[in-house]
């Protein structure tokens, strides 16, 4: 004899499944927004407007970011254009570690903190390997806040200008991100 409860349960389950499938396939899916940005980071280890300092290294008090094992802390200005007097967008704050034995590359982890413009109060978190001798280096965008919640993407960094004697560099960052 067929138990009516089983028939009712089976019918309910079947109808419930159909409703769930209908809802899942008819509602519009949320597509991410893509944002492309171009900005400049001014990395100055010496002179006026110093924004980066070495804090540890294996060469005692004579450490510099060009030596293996050196750690530097940055709070670099981020501008709209390559000149220091260009519109200030915020700052890049983080850490560089010279992590290659031949001292030709650094591992960089930093936040771009927007203090003006359209993205004020938002941040982008970047990390990656920077080999000095390459024209372009790619960094992963691993996180963000504010306007950039749930972000993912990448940044292509180029050395815009460099003075190795004074360790003053301007980096151009072309950023492509997807976010909701």
TrEMBL record:
<comment type="subunit">
    <text>Homodimer.</text>
</comment>
<keyword id="KW-0052">Apoplast</keyword>
<dbReference type="GO" id="GO:0048046">
    <property type="term" value="C:apoplast"/>
</dbReference>
<comment type="similarity">
    <text>Belongs to the plant dirigent protein family.</text>
</comment>
<keyword id="KW-1133">Transmembrane helix</keyword>
<keyword id="KW-0472">Membrane</keyword>
<feature type="transmembrane region" description="Helical">
    <location>
        <begin position="6"/>
        <end position="27"/>
    </location>
</feature>
<dbReference type="Pfam" id="PF03018">
    <property type="entry name" value="Dirigent"/>
</dbReference>
<dbReference type="GO" id="GO:0009699">
    <property type="term" value="P:phenylpropanoid biosynthetic process"/>
</dbReference>
<keyword id="KW-0964">Secreted</keyword>
<dbReference type="InterPro" id="IPR044859">
    <property type="entry name" value="Allene_oxi_cyc_Dirigent"/>
</dbReference>
<comment type="function">
    <text>Dirigent proteins impart stereoselectivity on the phenoxy radical-coupling reaction, yielding optically active lignans from two molecules of coniferyl alcohol in the biosynthesis of lignans, flavonolignans, and alkaloids and thus plays a central role in plant secondary metabolism.</text>
</comment>
<keyword id="KW-0812">Transmembrane</keyword>
<protein>
    <recommendedName>
        <fullName>Dirigent protein</fullName>
    </recommendedName>
</protein>
<dbReference type="InterPro" id="IPR004265">
    <property type="entry name" value="Dirigent"/>
</dbReference>
